[in-house]
Write a structure and sequence with these properties.
It is a single chain. This protein is an alpha+beta fold. It is built from 14 helices and 47 strands. Helix 4 runs parallel beside helix 6. The longest helix is centred in the middle third of the chain and has 21 residues.
Length: 925
């Protein structure tokens, strides 16, 4: 008797459910096993519409039965399909099986495990940070700090695509048979930008198959609109994604919005979960932690996230894997209308394992807030907070309109690295291993923030330095890097990270006049000086008496030795400690000042400037070339210190960009010093990657002393173009042009700066690789980007060109701009403790006349010191001054002009003009 049945129900790939746009399969069975005489069919009905009989194809005979394969063509989302088998053999009635049915499920994104995107945007509120790719997909989320917390870590922190909490969160829209995810380039054209003067990231999508647009906005809540926890505290971990869907056609459209979530909470290690929470109508991604004997491998905390949509319509959810799910909602798009779908990703964190109350205490109040508050107001409030930050920044005027925009964007980006809760500063977000606080990087960031008029960043960072040093009495030095909440993550000793503490504190006190802060943190200075006198007890950080130098890990962390850059930081730190001691006059420092001065002088005059002809004599100046050496006794064993014969290089003649720190920013040596000029000149020739000449490398061999015993291994620094190295050289050349009056140095500095700006990505957060760069080995886009390597170096370079600085202790304003030869003017307006001051330095087209204008308002009297470089000016010419002062002398050799004047409080309106008349004054660019 002929019979048929369903052997295996309809399924998609790998036996899963059939999803939109996906072919399905059904396995049919028939009896008897006579596939030459029998034909099998699949009768299919889709949403009450019959598609007739679909052919099935014989697979195999199993005993007395035959098995058949019946493909089902792709159907749209939500289609309800009924199907049954029918076997037909000549001479017998058809054998019909029983009906079955299924519903087509939403399709998954085409690539659920994609590689790292080319562009990563950052949004945050200085309590959390989200990484968003160029298709508005959330690439990862840092919480409960802007970087990595001691109880939160990625599973593979040393990889570029490591994640802390989420693999991806991406939206999509179904307007036809399937969900077209916004990450799919075949379905959507996308463009992305930050809203002007904010950290709100806006991505616009245009559907390739119809007049539909989607505008996605990513931001973290700021201002007074934070929800409250069950205990009444502000819950600041609120990340919002808004999708505005616009139907620009003349017909109504039925659509479905989808949100795909792939969670990896706390690296996905332990027992993470992703489940639907009925009471909160949201997805709950959780990891309640686990213990380990090694604290660095433990996750002694509970981390949870609620991912929920607004309450504008019903929501369905489908789990698609152990840590994956899709949330979707049906939409009706009227012609010319806009429909908004809002998504909240709310974080909860408690510092112990197994907390069962985080949802009720943290997440439910956040969801209630999200579904009741005016989100337009929340978005506007977040934007207004960032606009307020921008309005307090210096306003730069130059012939390059992009410079002012780059300064603003780098300042906003740098602030996203600064944690408001702990005061620490994340080094960068290019990979998991960098989202920690490296004291060296943070110190450079605080000095740049001070120059921008944001002293609160440095104040909170010095508090953080004091807290992390209080955790242990064994080691005196600050470690290489810490988690954002202050637990050591890498204990390798690098003495520059300790020595720079007092130098940065003095810089901050000079700019702000906050002597109380200096007194509060005087113990930090004493501890720093103690390390610079006695070492740390760590075998990798030691004083070499015969070299008069300290040996420790160097600027690039992987090699140990007595480096010039590290010891220069020791000299600068000790000298700053002496000046602070004389300024504050603490009773504990009276007997120590002499020791600090003696140690600084010995390192400087013997260890660094010594020019011993014999290899065993101290000194870091090569008597053959007259250039500075990279260092002495550099270990050839990467990551380890060694004094064994044959395992270290006695005198490394490599060209290391860190040598420029002698002039910029440490100001220990003039940029025009012949030894430093020769060293920098060699770098401009040899620290160039021939495959990517757009930038300098951090390290290169010096061919004058290229022999097996004079060079330590340079690691990747030898072949890696670096924005840090390129901009460091630009800063040095600006200083050199100011001292010598040689405009060619300034022109080259501007060229380096403009090269880096030209290679900035569309969001200004990273650099595009050069045309011949290998994007995986020698790309500018993958090395030393972050708060120090890119953002603060851009800030400092631009501010160096328009240098206007204030010493609040001496009440002295220094004006020392450098006007590039092709620029008609330069200027800046900014706020100081003494008031608001702005200047414009002009040179007319076709002439050699110069004009300096000063404006603003002073709260009290100050001393103004002016130093200007006027290349090619043969004589002072006619001099005019308001207020009136005698003509200053002109240094014909350097073209430098300098004068000093006491300015009274009140409105500031001054003008000085000199040089040959002629040409037309430029008042606008």
């Amino acid at each position: 008797m002929l019979t048929s049945w369903i052997e295996a129900a309809a399924s998609g790939r790998l036996g899963g459910p059939i999803r939109a746009g996906m072919w399905g399969t059904v396995v049919l069975g028939s009896h008897p096993a006579d596939h030459d005489e029998t034909q099998c069919w699949l009768e299919l009905i889709v949403d009450e519409e019959s598609l007739g009989l679909l052919p099935a194809y014989w697979l195999e005979d199993r005993g007395v039965n035959s098995l058949w394969h019946a493909p089902i063509p792709p159907q749209r989302i939500g289609s309800r399909l009924r199907y049954r088998p029918i076997a037909i053999r000549e001479g017998e009635p058809p054998a019909e099986g029983s009906w079955r049915e299924f519903q087509v499920r939403p399709n998954l994104p085409a690539l659920t495990e994609s590689s790292e995107p080319l562009t990563i945007g950052l949004v945050g509120n200085r309590h959390m940070t989200a990484r968003v790719d160029e298709r508005a997909a959330t690439f990862d989320l840092f919480f409960p700090t802007v970087g990595l917390h001691s109880n939160v870590r990625p599973a593979e922190g040393d990889l570029s695509n490591s994640r802390s909490h989420f693999r991806t969160i991406v939206g999509g829209l179904a307007l036809g048979s399937r969900l077209d995810w916004f990450a799919e380039r075949m379905s959507w054209d996308a463009s992305q930008h930050y809203r002007p003067e904010t950290n709100l990231l806006e991505t616009e999508f245009r559907w390739r198959r119809g007049p539909v647009r989607v505008i996605a906005v990513d931001f973290a809540a700021m201002g007074p609109d934070f929800p409250r926890t069950g205990g009444g505290l502000e819950s600041r971990g609120q990340y919002i994604k808004r999708f505005r869907i616009l139907n620009e056609s003349t017909e109504s459209l039925s659509a479905m919005f989808g949100l795909y979530v792939h969670a990896e909470v706390n690296g996905g290690i332990g027992e993470p979960s992703l489940s639907w929470q009925d009471s909160g109508h949201c997805l709950l991604a959780a990891n309640r932690g686990h213990g380990h004997a090694n604290r660095k491998l433990a996750r002694d905390a509970t981390v949870e996230f609620a991912i929920g949509l607004d309450d504008r319509g019903p929501v369905d959810c489908e789990p698609t894997g152990p840590s994956e799910a899709i949330i979707f909602r049906n939409l009706e798009l009227l012609p010319g209308s806009e429909v908004c779908v809002d998504v909240l990703i709310s974080g909860a964190f408690t510092g112990w394992r197994g907390d069962q109350g985080t949802f009720e205490h943290w997440l439910r109040p956040a969801l209630d807030w999200f579904r009741s508050v005016d989100l337009n107001r929340v978005e506007h409030s977040a934007a207004a907070e960032w606009v307020g930050v921008v309005q307090s920044l210096p306003m730069v005027e130059s012939s390059r309109p992009g410079h002012a925009e780059v300064l603003r964007r780098s300042a906003l980006s740098a602030l996203l690295h600064c944690d408001s809760d702990h005061g620490s500063i994340a080094a960068g977000f290019d990979r998991g291993i960098n989202a920690y606080c490296w004291p060296r990087d943070a110190i450079w960031a605080t000095t740049a923030m001070d120059r921008l008029g944001m002293p609160e960043v440095a104040e909170r960072f010095f508090d953080w330095l004091g807290r992390v040093r209080g955790r242990t009495q064994v080691n005196q030095a600050w470690f290489m890097k810490y988690t954002l909440d202050g637990l050591p993550e890498w204990e390798t000793p690098a003495i520059d990270q300790t020595a720079l503490v007092s130098w940065a504190l003095e810089q901050h006190v000079r700019r702000t006049g906050n002597l109380e802060l200096a007194r509060k943190h005087w113990p930090l200075v004493e501890r720093m000086a103690s390390v610079c006198l006695h070492g740390d007890g760590h075998p990798g950080l030691k004083w070499c008496e015969d070299l008069a130098l300290f040996s420790s890990a160097g600027l690039w962390e992987t090699r140990f030795g007595a480096y010039l850059s590290s010891n220069a930081c020791v000299v600068a730190g000790l000298q700053a400690a002496v000046r602070l001691a004389r300024l504050l006059d603490p009773p504990s420092a009276t007997d120590l000042i002499e020791q600090w001065e003696e140690r600084a002088d010995r390192i400087w005059n013997v260890g660094i400037l010594g020019e011993g002809d014999q290899r065993e004599q101290p000194g870091l100046v090569d008597p053959q070339s007259g250039r500075f050496l990279e260092g002495r006794r550099i270990s050839t064993r990467l990551g380890f210190w060694s004094d064994q014969p044959g395992s270290c290089v006695e005198r490394s003649a490599a060209l290391d960009i860190g040598v420029l720190g002698l002039a910029v920013p440490l100001n220990l040596l003039e940029a025009s010093d012949p030894r430093l000029r020769r060293t920098a000149g060699a770098m401009l020739v040899h620290n160039v990657n021939r495959a990517d000449p757009g930038g300098l490398t951090r390290w290169a061999p010096d061919p004058i002393r290229l022999d097996e015993t004079s060079l330590a291994p340079g690691d990747s620094q030898r072949e890696t173009p670096s924005c840090l190295a390129t901009l460091w050289m630009a800063r040095y050349l600006i200083r050199l042009a100011r001292e010598t009056g040689e405009s060619r140095h300034c022109a080259q500095a501007v060229e380096f700066l403009d090269r880096m700006i030209a290679r900035l990505g569309p969001l200004g957060l990273s650099l595009r690789p050069g045309p011949r760069s290998n994007p995986f080995s020698s790309s500018l886009a993958r090395y030393f980007q972050g708060v120090w390597g890119l953002h603060t170096m851009l800030i400092d370079t631009i501010l160096d060109l328009v240098e206007l600085d204030y010493d609040a202790i001496d009440r002295r304003l220094s004006l020392r701009p450098v006007l590039p030869p092709s620029w008609p003017r330069i200027g800046i307006t900014r706020n100081f403790p003494c008031g608001r001051v702005g200047f414009r330095y002009e040179r007319p087209v076709g002439g050699r006349a110069h004009r300096l204008l000063l404006s603003g308002r002073l709260e009290h009297a100050i001393r103004l010191d002016v130093e200007l470089s006027c290349p090619g000016l043969g004589s002072l010419g006619p001099w005019s001054s308001r207020p009136s002062i005698p003509p200053p002398p002109l240094n014909l050799a350097t073209g430098r002009l300098a004068w000093s004047i006491l300015l009274p409080p009140g409105e500031l309106d001054a003008e000085w003009a000199w040089g040959d008349d002629g040409g037309e004054w430029i008042s606008a660019v």
